[in-house]
Description:
The chain folds into two domains: 1-49; 51-229, Vaccinia Virus protein VP39 (Rossmann fold, 3-Layer(aba) Sandwich), CATH 3.40.50.150. The chain is built from seven helices and eight strands; from the N terminus they run H-H-E-H-E-H-E-E-H-E-H-E-H-E-E. The protein has helices spanning 2-26, 28-47, 57-67, 83-90, 139-149, 164-173, 199-210; strands at 52-53, 73-77, 96-100, 132-136, 154-159, 178-186, 214-219, 224-228. 31% of the residues are buried.
Amino acid sequence: MFRPFLNKLVNKLARAIADHLERRELHPKRLMLMDAQVETVAYIRSNMPEAMIFDRREEVLDLAIQRMPTKGSILEFGVAGGDSIRYIASKTHRTVHGFDSFRGLPEDWPGRHELRGHYSTEGHVPSVPSNVVLHEGWFEQTLPLFLEANPDPAAMIHVDCDLYSATKTLLEALSDRLTKNTIIVFDEYFNFVGWRNHEFRAFQEFITDKHLNYRYLAWSYQQVMVIIEDGAS
């Protein structure tokens, strides 16, 4: 009696696994991800021939910290659970400012599966080192107050806010704080479905509008590091 039941259970499990694998193989998303990768490689070959290549985000951040100016603010946009800001803070004695609502994405992320509110910590602020100052709230609320109280240029900006709208907001607000040798690290610049519509698009529109010159210094899986070669006009 037990053997027929076991055989039935095994067959049911095998069918479920086969169905799952078939759906994964046939899902259009798979080909779209491959297309995004091909587009990313083509962009790298055309625009980043001299940039460093790294396997991990932390290696990009290490280089950014090494190359950033010795004076100026260190800023992160999109703190979430605090992993990256803790890493940055561990590599410098300088103050690191983090900006986040801690309520997740302000809108859906088209081309991805993350909906509005994804990455929310329910308002819980992460534990951070003593050289980190967190600014809780939406960028359009907290960034003007910070800039009014802090006249320094931006030495390094870590952009981890994913969306076009949020990236556009912070770049516009910081336009007069970008100086020669300011370092910007984008955490989701390319290599995902719809990558040309978010951090990439916001940055490209911004540099065109502000007549900025920049150079790619490094890239990883989705991360890209740039250096500003002159100030915004």
